[in-house]
Specification:
- The protein is of the alpha+beta class and 712 residues long.
- It folds into 4 domains: 3-93, no CATH class; 102-315 and 396-429, no CATH class; 463-558, Immunoglobulin-like, CATH 2.60.40; 568-707, Immunoglobulins (Immunoglobulin-like, Sandwich).
- It is built from 25 helices and 20 strands.
- Strands 12, 13, 15, 17 and 18 form a 5-stranded antiparallel beta sheet that branches. It has a 4-stranded antiparallel beta sheet with strand order 3-4-7-6, with no helix packed on it. A 4-stranded antiparallel beta sheet has the order 10-11-16-14, with no helix packed on it.
- The termini are far apart.
């Protein structure tokens, strides 16, 4: 059938569904962009147009009977997706000039050093955290209590940052580069995917927001996605003629760029080499298949050396130390992998090195299994090496998430359904003796990894940590100091570094303002710890654990979960929107709420209500009267009823021209205050409303005597 007849054919159900789902995925992005319509009207306009465009695309997708029309809808999905990527990125970056990761700040600073003729490798880049406003809790800490301060990636990310610094004037250069790389990967995936699946490029790259979040945080793994995507597209066809040919050389060049960008690509190389050799061995003899594989690897190595050669020539040792730094810097455990059992569930923690050794064996086992069962595992070429990264102490989810679009392109452009005869030939490409040897080595690696992981989980953390007391603050509703009792159960003298963890990531190490610098074997000491900064203070309403790290031996120990606030105070009405006359009054009801928002029916709990005026230049003592006490008395305490509610009657007959701010908290007789409420402001002024009506405040209806959340 000719081209005209083909275009007249109706679209397949698969094509229609893929286009529909991809278009729908843009609605959330459009809504996010619309949220910036006030400060950035142009961004809001893009969102409005995108809403309409998506509706039109959906209508056309479900009604068209033309394959060619659906192809045009796919193109529209791409255009709208890229427009929304740009719009939401502008909205998210507006007013937020800082970097969200230390790696982004280090890239920017390293590029600046390079432009000024200095070698970024080996330089102390710690000043970049302040210069580019990185929240200090997002710096990478080491087990020894230090902070990673050197550049730890191959040089392409520096070169890209330098180029974008020139284009952007140094403003958000790394993030702009990452976003451009993300947009480029969407376009490349769209071009490389089969026609019926093209709009999946938009769904995977833009519709799923995690990649954009990584790009806006400066995660440099995003930079390797376009080159890696080009390297693996149509992978199974490389070298089958007995030579690389032009396309194979270009794909090897792309892979060389990828391995010069980020170390994640390094872990893919052995699997790619095995896959290339096995693919070629299906149609070539051993010598020719080996020659093609060696030629491909040679091009990759040549590109890698050529890109990094200037830095190697200047100081090879500093360059080597830099590019292998992530593997040897002893960073504290972090990620979404097996090590979480030690960090959060207190299974093991006394031998973190066992995780690293076990990971090496898992990786070798995965490679062996891939080689031995290649016909069955060929399409897992990019998944198996990343799966091995589930097991080290740094097991970040970004390792797999950033490669999702690459996986899609590889799978969609591979020879998906391999004929049975081809599988049989591939199985016979390796001798039975060699296959048995590989299987034996794989089994040995699996057994060794299992032993090491059992050891990692069975060796307890050396420190027993018990939180004895905390000191809190009301305005920030957080904990700023801790007193902890620590016992060293090991036979080694340990120098612990402490940090709380409430969100899955330990904060900056806290300052030790009391307690010994090191703890002798089997000794017990009390440590007084103070938060290093506001960002490291745990919220009062969120459970947290205190973690202690040591280096030599590499260990992590955790306390049990500590919840500063078992319940919180909630003030009703939460808003008093009308001005009250001098002498007018308002009744504030403070109820106990659980972390899930349910009312806690508990009587006899002491509730404190404080008052203050936050003026432009200082805090001013207010003169309101709470429950008939002296004017300005703060705080005033009342007890909850059996319904879990304390009631305060507040009035003011002195004009102070500023709102009076009220905040409630739980004030136990023998403990620290907690459960701080939101702040409620009330304005008293001459001529205000004489009577406060139900409609004048956001008050709550009552059920069984307890105020319930809602609007009156």
């Amino acid at each position: 059938m000719g081209v005209g007849g083909s275009s007249a054919r109706p679209p397949t159900a698969l094509h229609r569904i893929v286009t529909f789902v991809s278009a729908v995925s843009l609605l959330g992005l459009a809504f996010n962009a619309w949220g910036a319509i006030v400060p950035l009207p142009a961004v809001g306009a893009v969102a409005m147009v995108s809403f309409l465009a998506v509706l039109v695309m959906l209508a056309v997708t479900v009604t068209t009977s033309s394959r060619q029309v659906l192809v045009r809808v796919d193109m529209a999905v791409l255009v709208v997706g890229l427009a929304l990527l740009a719009a939401t990125s502008i909205a998210n970056l507006y007013g937020n000039p800082g970097y969200g990761t230390d790696e982004a700040a280090f890239e920017q600073y390293a590029a600046t050093l390079l432009v000024h003729g200095r070698n970024p490798y080996g330089s102390d880049l710690l000043a970049a955290l302040t210069l580019y406003r990185v929240p200090i809790q997002y710096a990478t800490s080491t087990l020894g209590g230090g902070t990673v301060s050197t550049f730890g990636y191959p040089d392409v990310s520096i070169l890209v940052a330098a180029a974008f610094s020139w284009l952007t004037g140094g403003v958000q250069s790394v993030i702009v580069a990452d976003l451009v790389a993300l947009g480029l990967s969407v376009v490349l995936a769209f071009a490389l995917l089969p026609r019926e699946l093209r709009s999946l490029a938009v769904l995977a790259g833009v519709g799923v927001p995690i990649l954009q979040g990584y790009a806006e945080s400066g995660v440099n793994a995003i930079l390797l996605v376009p080159s890696l995507m080009l390297a693996v597209a149509g992978w199974s066809s490389i070298g089958r003629s007995g030579r690389l040919a032009r396309r194979g050389v270009l794909q090897a060049v792309a892979l060389g760029i990828a391995v010069s960008t980020q170390q994640l690509a390094w872990f893919l190389l052995p699997f790619l080499a095995v896959s290339l050799w096995r693919n070629c061995r299906e149609v070539l003899d051993t010598r020719r298949a080996t020659r093609v594989t060696a030629a491909f690897a040679g091009v990759v190595l040549a590109v890698f050396v050529a890109l990094d050669l200037p830095f190697i020539v200047v100081d090879a040792r500093l360059w080597v130390d830099g590019v292998i730094a992530p593997l040897v810097q002893h960073a504290i455990p972090y990620g979404q992998g097996l090590v979480d059992l030690s960090v959060f569930f207190r299974l093991g923690g006394g031998d973190l090195g066992a995780y690293s050794d076990g990971t090496a064996l898992v990786y070798l086992a995965a490679l062996g299994a891939f080689a031995a069962w290649y016909p069955r595992l060929r399409h897992a070429m990019l998944i198996l090496p990343v799966a091995a990264l589930f097991f080290p102490t740094r097991s970040l989810a970004e390792y797999l998430m950033t490669l999702s679009s690459v996986w899609l392109v590889f799978l969609a452009t591979s020879e998906g359904l391999v004929a049975r005869s081809t599988v049989d030939r591939a199985a016979g490409a390796v001798s039975r003796r060699a296959r048995r040897a590989v299987l034996a080595a794989t089994a040995l690696c699996c057994a060794g990894a299992l032993v090491l992981f059992v050891r990692a989980l069975a060796t307890p953390g050396p420190l027993e940590i018990r939180i004895r007391s905390v000191t809190t603050n009301g305005q920030l509703r957080s904990v700023w100091s801790l007193e902890v009792r620590v016992t060293n159960t090991s036979a080694a003298r340990l120098r612990p570094s402490f940090a709380p963890n409430a969100i899955g990531q330990a904060t900056t190490f806290w300052n030790e303002i009391g307690g010994p610098p090191s703890l002798a074997p089997h000794a017990t000491a009390v440590y007084r710890l103070a938060a290093a900064n506001i960002g490291s203070m745990p919220s009062l309403t969120t459970p947290f654990e205190l973690e202690a790290f040591t280096e030599g031996p590499d260990t992590v120990s955790s306390s049990t979960l500590f919840t500063p606030s078992a319940y919180s105070a909630y003030v009703t009405p939460p808003y008093v929107d009308k001005v009250l006359p001098l002498g007018g009054s308002v009744e504030l009801h403070v109820e106990l709420r659980s972390p899930f928002g349910a009312v806690v029916h508990r009587g006899g709990v002491d509730i404190a209500l404080g008052q203050i005026i936050y003026a432009e230049g200082a805090e001013i003592a207010s003169e309101a009267v709470i429950d008939g006490h002296d004017a300005g008395m703060s705080p005033v305490t009342a007890r909850t009823s059996s319904a879990g509610v304390a009631t305060f009657h507040v009035t003011d007959d002195s004009y102070q021209a500023n709102p009076v701010y009220f905040q409630a908290w739980i004030q136990p007789a023998g403990g620290y205050p907690f459960g701080y409420s939101e702040i409620v402001s009330v304005v008293w002024a001459p001529g205000g409303r004489r009577h406060l009506r139900q409609a004048d405040v956001h008050t709550d209806t009552r059920v069984d005597g307890a105020p319930q959340r809602g609007r009156g």
